[in-house]
Amino acid sequence: MIKRVGVIGAGAMGTGIAHIMAQCGYDVVLNDIDNIYLDKAIKSINTVLDKKIAKGTFTEENKDELIGKIETSTNLNDLKDVDLIVEAIIENIDVKHALFAQLEEICKPETIFASNTSTMSITKLASATKRPEKMAGMHFFNPAPVMKLVEIIRGFYTSDNTVTILKEVVRSLGKDSIEVKKDSPGFVVNRLMLTQFREAFLVLEEGIASIEDIDKAMTLGLNHPMGPFTLMDFTGNDIAYDTLMYMYTEMAMPNWAPPAALKRVVNAGRLGNKIGKGWYDYEKGDKRK
After folding, report:
1. What is the 3-state secondary structure (H, E, C) of 105-116?
2. What tens digit of pLDDT does each residue of 156-171 get?
3. Domains defined for the chain, CATH in brackets
4. In CA terms, which of 5, 60, 86, 197 is 20 to 30 Å from 119?
5. Can you give the residue ranges of the 3-hydroxyacyl-CoA dehydrogenase NAD binding domain (predicted)?
6. What residues act catalytically?
7. Strand runs labelled E in the chain
């Protein structure tokens, strides 16, 4: 039974995962390399909870209980007794692989390893361990406390029991899961979403419509909550670039190559909301390109 969860990486995804896990009763160890990131994560969770309290949907007692369930740590050895690891660090397969090799030596044999990667090979990550049957993808969506879907991805050796346990964890969080039966780059959601991104770039580069009108077409015409360019700014243009480059490398198909327009934006340092400018200028209080 999963009672204690280790979340590695205190960025937006790791913070959100730690939040929803604690909210649903799990004891959480949130780990990162520096207390600066951990302090920022706890501050972010407090801010979200304070807004809920102001709306009357949460209480100070609920908040204290939730925050009390999250232990922060910069030492991987503090994860030795967790029942489940959810890795949510940088989308770099070599860095992730090295992390799981370390965790293999630290965690108890029955601990399940999961990666929040949106694209990368679970089988490759599992090769860093001696427990490939206990390794799977557990891909949450941003913001994790709000978004309802979690992709559960099988590696080549992932056992049925591991998938069953992770599905139950997802249900306990009040979320729905889909099972990705084959470890294929991009899984289901990113495979479909990145195809949409590539078409949006073609529409832009062919002069068919502006960035603003492409986004408006997707939100008002297809009822998407965000258009592709707004969504790239939200998640990070650097992440979009790295994800497409990974898909291009793994699939060996030219149509997956990152578009020149995306590369120009990333090279210009316009990474999206996190720095106030991407396809739009958020730091000016508007969304003009």
Report:
1. HHCCCCCEEEEC
2. 999 999 999 999 999 9
3. 4-180 (3.40.50.720), 191-275 (1.10.1040.10)
4. 5
5. 5-183
6. 118, 139, 151, 190
7. 4-8, 27-31, 70-73, 84-87, 112-115, 135-140, 149-154, 176-180
